[in-house]
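From the methods appendix. Each design record in this collection lists the tokenized structure first, followed by the designed amino acid sequence. Records were kept in a plain field format so they could be parsed without special tools. The example shown here is representative of the layout used throughout.

RECORD:
FOLD TOKENS (260 positions):
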């Protein structure tokens, strides 16, 4: 049976929560009465989400501008978090992005750096930095937002897919290393979710981004938030290792049925 009150007054940190999937996760946790910490690179967007989180029911909200790619900034950010927002009950590593959709031979090296630095290294920095707080709390949870792209690569997405494969493998290793603690590790692997993800991938090309979601009924950010709650609210002896979720008409990253 799910424990629907487990998040009440507990501290939950969601990275990249100013929009898309992260915002939906933060709002879902707020609605369960969690104290929510959020970070991202845009101060104005964080201000807006802070107000929404309070309205959704969070008893306390803490926001701070952070680029997860910056190792020193991650440490300083965590130092600046007020003591009552620690110890942490859950870390949701959501911040991430794709850049470009093209053959490896044509890929920009800067795009590779951005994806690997955000999706892999940023996630590692956040995890390592808050781990003592999670362990100190005597309970806890790390939820990583991976992707079906991490299970099977699709054409023209090699480096994004590789970065999400790293999230899967790191989650597996972390789960083993933390097996002697009460911390649970969950890797959520969504298929196509309608967010700003494609707009970011195609650097603001609205037409190209909208085409990704045309003719399908894609997942919504709230669907992934529901998956996160499912994992967080499982009984203490139950660890949801992975959730793979796609829209009904999507089979893999590269295979989906589109209405013409
Ligand atoms: P969005 O572009 O809507 O949201 C991405 C979020 O990540 C933004 O809030 C952004 O905030 C934040 N972010 C990006 N880079 C950084 C950084 N360096 N430091 C801190 N925050 C950062 O996309 P989604 O909501 O779709 O993506 C969320 C996660 O879900 C990503 O990890 C993505 O790979 C994954 N995913 C998405 C799928 C999809 O189809 N949409 C499917 C499977 C997985 P800001 O710009 O303010 O920093
Ligand atoms: C994003 C989902 O299918 O575009 O991680 O790779 S997909």
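DESIGN:
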């Amino acid at each position: 049976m799910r424990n629907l009150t487990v998040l009440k007054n507990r501290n939950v940190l969601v990275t990249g929560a100013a929009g898309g999937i992260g915002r939906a996760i933060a709002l879902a946790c707020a609605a369960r009465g969690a104290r929510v910490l959020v970070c991202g690179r845009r101060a104005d967007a964080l201000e807006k989400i802070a107000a929404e989180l309070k309205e959704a029911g969070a008893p306390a909200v803490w926001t701070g501008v952070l680029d997860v790619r910056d190792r020193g900034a991650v440490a300083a950010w965590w130092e600046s978090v007020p003591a009552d927002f620690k110890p942490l009950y859950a870390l949701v590593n959501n911040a991430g992005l794709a850049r470009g959709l093209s053959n490896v031979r044509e890929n920009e090296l800067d795009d590779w750096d951005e994806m690997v630095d955000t999706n892999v290294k940023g996630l590692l920095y956040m995890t390592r930095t808050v781990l003592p707080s999670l362990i100190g709390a005597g309970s806890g949870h790390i939820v990583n937002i991976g992707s079906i792209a991490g299970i099977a690569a699709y054409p023209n997405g090699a480096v994004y897919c590789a970065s999400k494969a790293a999230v899967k493998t790191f989650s597996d290793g972390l789960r083993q290393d933390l097996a002697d603690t009460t911390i649970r590790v969950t890797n959520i692997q969504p298929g196509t979710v309608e967010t700003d993800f494609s707009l970011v991938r195609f650097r603001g090309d609205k037409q190209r981004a909208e085409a990704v979601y045309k003719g399908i009924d894609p997942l919504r950010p709230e669907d992934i938030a529901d998956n996160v709650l499912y994992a967080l609210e499982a009984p203490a002896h139950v660890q949801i290792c992975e959730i793979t979720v796609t829209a009904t008409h999507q089979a893999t990253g590269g295979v989906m049925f589109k209405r013409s």
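APPENDIX NOTE: The two ends are 42 Å apart (CA to CA).
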